[in-house]
Design brief:
22 strands, globular, 713 residues, alpha/beta, binds magnesium ion, binds adenosine-5'-diphosphate, 25 helices, 6-stranded parallel β-sheet, 18% strand
């Protein structure tokens, strides 16, 4: 019995090994790297740390740099001062350990000439280089005592195993770690690379490839790891970047298609009567841009599929009015509206401006705050559930938590530019209302096509008339007192000012970053003792915050000292001064947002950036601020200043990571990929046609099931 058992397990074991052997011969993209020759469980774990789990990941583990070794030359063609690669026989070796810098020396010859190669501290080479061996060496050539010499070259002993010695010097340099060198990674990838023909399916037909000037997918993968020359490397990159962007856009296109075709929304129709009834609420004529946006929104909302629109416009350009139009349109169609803001202050602000427009209106509206608890809250939630409340305003957190609507027709999300595709998808899960996302951060065209790539976009370019200009100055240390005097004069003229700080309090180790709490004390007692100076920050109880905001609005407070809680949405036309302390610590978008708080009335406004900095990037930001008031221009500069790395985390936006493409540098490809992806989805929305099988498979592997493609396998 015992014997039999062990026999059995023996055979089991050997079949397993056999299986594994046969799997090594036949690689597939989903195979764990562990089963590759040269990778065991330990290396597989190291690979996992590098984000590489499967053979497919390995193929997409792109080099960070590439070497191109020059063609080997004859020794007599070596030129001093240049690099060269030679092949020759080791005539003799010598180790001079007595020197201050020990030298290992080899004399190499070919059929033309002899040369000397030395390696400083080359003692370890005594066991590697022996007379009679043929080696290939690549390095810089010098003339030493009238003799050609190479110093510290890379070299390789040529034997039957190194059939392609070129690969040793050229090819990819991989992002490595302490347990796995670039060279080891290269060797392992080399094995997978040999199988690209079977591993890498083509996505497109020949006609398209030719038209789009793209090489085949398998050539691209082969060349990216071991490019024959720089031109081919460039072509490989182009194809792989295109595919990456194309798959991302395809994901967005599919997501959008699903939104439009598999979820229904309540159509909200607009009649002339409804339109004029809504417009009567506004004490001014809407601008052309506002009307344009409204027309687009109304057309979307009239459809039985959910609107998915981004409303972009600089701070103060009049987005709230447009959103309110949409809200009233939804209410006129007997549905409810949720208006969500990122903070309580902003929610309250929205509610207030809505109140202003809706005076004496029958529209039932309410502001939900965190302070609302107990019986009152239960009652209110019940009203909302019964449909006895039309417009509910609150923070995203509050409204997403446990509020149930009877019939939610429209969701307006304000200032959600920090959120991306993933969060929006989350929101929609509960219901499928029409959705309007408002943002005051101008979104550069690249981001509009990626992070917001599943949305339609309406833009308000021009602000309503009657806005005073905003002058921006960068104030250094020596001008601080002068600036205070300037502000004082404006306060005396009954204008109001914001002072914004990067922090609430100073950190323990006293750094020199100014903090609101500390500076508030000195501003109120020393700098502006004759004025009312109040503090506002995010950690204060919300009632206190509301109270201070409301007093500031009513002009009871002259100077509002705060952190970035005033960043978005606050509307006090009489505030004409914005001081930003430690301005070098804020991002460009944030600075622009903050500046948007002023210049809301007719009077001239001033934005004073207090900053001392040596950082070139920070200086760049401050200079742009003083030069431009155009949000789009600033946003594009911002992207350029920050560079591609920090630019855009795809993960955070619920999109797959970009490994090789860059949405700024590869803008042309992005545009092409987007167009083609959206076209493809309109022709074959579920990618069921046989010619799309390969694309579909890769897409599923990348996005998982989130695109709903899984159920049509
Ligand atoms: P945003 O939400 O884009 O920051 P708001 O909608 O809050 O801008 O508008 C800013 C200010 O401009 C508000 O005080 C609003 O009353 C005013 N406003 C909006 N649209 C117009 C318009 N068409 N004409 C005149 N003033 C307007
Ligand atoms: Mg606003």
């Amino acid at each position: 019995m015992v014997l039999k058992n062990s026999e059995k397990s023996d055979t089991q074991c050997s079949t397993r090994i056999e299986n594994r052997e046969s799997r090594i011969e036949k690689l597939d993209l989903s195979m764990p790297v562990q089963y590759l020759k040269g990778v065991g469980p330990a290396r597989a774990r190291t690979f996992a740390q590098l984000g590489v789990h499967t053979v497919g990941d390995l193929l997409e583990y792109f080099p960070r740099d590439w070497n191109f070794s020059p063609e080997p030359v004859k020794i007599n063609q070596m030129r001093p001062g240049r690099t060269a690669t030679i092949v020759g026989m080791v005539e003799s070796t010598d180790y001079q350990s007595y020197r201050r810098q020990p030298i290992f020396e080899a004399i190499i010859s070919d059929d033309t000439e002899v040369c000397r190669i030395i390696w400083f501290h080359g003692g370890f080479l005594r066991n590697q280089l022996k007379p009679g061996q043929v080696i290939m060496a690549s390095g810089k050539v010098a003339l030493y005592k009238h003799q050609l010499q190479m110093t510290n070259p890379k070299f390789l002993v040529l034997d039957e195993r190194s059939s392609e010695p070129d690969e040793y010097f050229s090819g990819g340099v991989y992002p490595a770690c302490s347990k796995l060198s670039s060279r080891q990674i290269k060797k392992i990838i080399g094995r997978v690379r040999d199988a690209v023909d079977e591993l890498v399916p083509e996505f497109y037909d020949k006609g398209f490839l030719a038209k789009a000037n793209l090489i085949s997918r398998k050539d691209a993968f082969a060349w990216i790891h071991l490019p024959p020359d720089e031109k081919k490397l460039a072509r490989a990159k182009r194809r792989l970047k295109y595919d990456e962007l194309f798959l991302m856009q395809l994901g967005l296109a599919l997501r959008r298609f699903q939104m439009q075709h598999f979820s229904t929304a309540t159509p909200c129709r607009c009649s002339d009567e409804i339109d004029s009834r809504i417009r009567k609420r506004f004490p001014f004529l809407l601008t052309e841009d506002q009307n344009g946006a409204i027309a687009e929104i109304a057309a979307d909302m009239a459809k039985p599929e959910p609107m998915n629109r981004l409303l972009q416009g600089d701070v103060g350009s009049g987005k709230t009015v447009v959103a309110l139009y949409a809200a009233l349109l939804a209410v006129a169609n007997r549905t409810q509206v949720a208006i969500m803001a990122p903070t309580e202050i902003l929610a309250a602000q929205h509610f207030l401006s809505i109140e202003r427009y809706l005076k004496n209106s029958k529209v039932r509206r309410v502001l939900i705050t965190g302070g609302l608890t107990g019986k009152k809250r239960v009652q209110l939630l019940d009203q909302i559930r019964r449909g006895a409340m039309d417009i509910v305003v609150g923070t995203v957190a509050l409204l997403q938590k446990d509020i149930e609507f009877q019939k939610l027709g429209l969701v307006v999300i304000d200032e959600q530019h920090k959120f991306g595709v993933a969060q929006r998808a989350q929101l929609r899960k509960q219901t499928t209302p029409h959705c309007l996302v408002m943002t005051a951060t101008p979104i550069p065209r690249t981001l509009a096509m990626t992070a917001f790539g599943d949305l339609d976009v309406s833009i308000i370019k021009h602000s309503p008339p009657g806005r005073g200009t905003v002058i921006t100055r960068w104030v250094g240390r020596h001008n601080r007192q002068k600036a205070y005097q300037f502000i004082r004069e404006h306060l005396r003229a009954k204008k109001q000012a914001y002072f914004v700080y990067p922090r609430i309090t100073t950190l323990e180790e006293s750094d020199d970053i100014k903090a609101a709490t500390d500076e508030w004390k000195s501003l109120s007692t020393e700098v502006f003792p004759e004025f009312t100076v109040e503090l506002l920050h995010g950690r204060m109880p919300s009632e206190k915050k509301q109270k201070i905001m409301s007093e500031f609005r009513r002009g009871k407070i002259d100077v509002l000292v705060s952190t970035v809680v005033v960043e978005v949405g606050v509307d006090v036309p009489n505030a004409t001064i914005m001081v930003i302390e430690g301005a070098d610590r804020f991002g460009l978008a944030q600075l622009h947002q903050l500046r948007g708080r002023i210049g809301r009335g007719e009077a001239k406004s001033y934005c004073l950036l207090f900053a001392e900095t040596e950082s070139e990037v920070a200086k760049g930001r401050l200079e742009i601020m003083t030069r431009s008031n155009d949000g789009f221009e600033i946003a594009e500069h911002d992207l350029r200043l920050r560079g591609p790395g920090e630019l855009f985390s795809t993960r955070q936006h619920g999109l797959p990571d970009l490994k090789i493409a860059n949405i700024v540098d590869d803008y042309e490809l992005l545009v092409m990929a987007r167009k083609n992806a959206f076209e493809l989805v309109s022709q074959d929305p579920m990618l069921t046609r046989p010619e799309h099988k390969n694309i579909r498979q890769v897409l599923l592997a990348k996005f998982g099931d989130s695109l709903g493609l899984g159920d049509v396998a």
